[in-house]
Amino acid sequence: MTNNLDTLATTLYATTDDLLKEHPDLAPWRPAVGIAPQLTDAELVTLAMMQAMLGFTSEAKWLRYARARLRHLFPYLPKQPGYNKRLRKSAELLRRVSRVLAASTSAWSDDVWIVDSTPVECGRSRETVKRSDLAGWAEYGYCASHSRFFWGLRLHLVCTLQGLPVAFALTGAKADEREVLLDLLAAEPHLAARPGQTLIGDKNYFGRDFELELAQHDFQLLRPTRKGERQRPGGALFKPLRQVIESVNETFKGQLDLEQHRGRTPSGVIARVMQRILALTAAIWHNDRTGQSVLRSLTAYDH
Questions:
Q1: Which of 12, 14, 15, 293 is deepest in the core (most CB within 10 A)?
Q2: How many domains are contained in the chain?
Q3: Cα-flanking dihedrals φ and ψ of residue 145, to 5°?
Q4: First-to-final CA distance of the chain
Q5: Alpha-carbon distance 294 to 303, whole Å?
Q6: Do residues 163 and 296 make contact, with C-beta atoms less than 8 angstroms apart?
Q7: Model-level pTM?
């Protein structure tokens, strides 16, 4: 099997199409009587993944490119309003496909996870903040890693050391990372049913009650020692592992343009973030299937 974008797109389409035939309830709801869409749901998932992989933040520009270059993969392409509407309604489908792909990789069974959050900026001007449909969900927050304030959301990620997304959540910028992590584990009990799982986080993941609740799930938490604490085990490992966490965030931001999502409504932001999670998951899944040594490499697919 070759390792390029066309092959990834074809394999993802076939996998999604088979999944939807087996589980038709995963497709977005549409009336029983009406005109069937010319772009199938499997084609939409593939088109959404390719847009994120190739770095097109403008949907209009992406569709112009697809009409000129990708007719061999997509005989029919909708206009921008139709594509945007379909994409926003398909966020849950993108999430379910991402999970199916992730669960079929060899990395899914890793017993070490890293956990972190990263800003998803949604606006910079005061007028945007006052008039945005995201107001009330998006809020002002502070990113310690880059020493900057921002207005927007936070993407909370639980990943394997190879960068495979295991669980994720979008919250307001001020949400407590510890509470979000516990909510993620509560929402998906099968993730917590992994005896001996190790979680690696930064100094924000602290607290006796928090660590006790993780221990009840048989999770071991490794984090740097905070000021005033006794030295915690594994301190020498955190500096290189912190680079792993930062590099996963940089893949989303530097290669998949996470902060240039252009979402203006809650459904728009969710769909665009899901596009990027799907793109990274699909690349890791395909690299795993083709026996690549570095699973989180997008180089073969981003052109």
A1: 12
A2: 1
A3: -60, -35
A4: 18
A5: 18
A6: yes
A7: 0.94
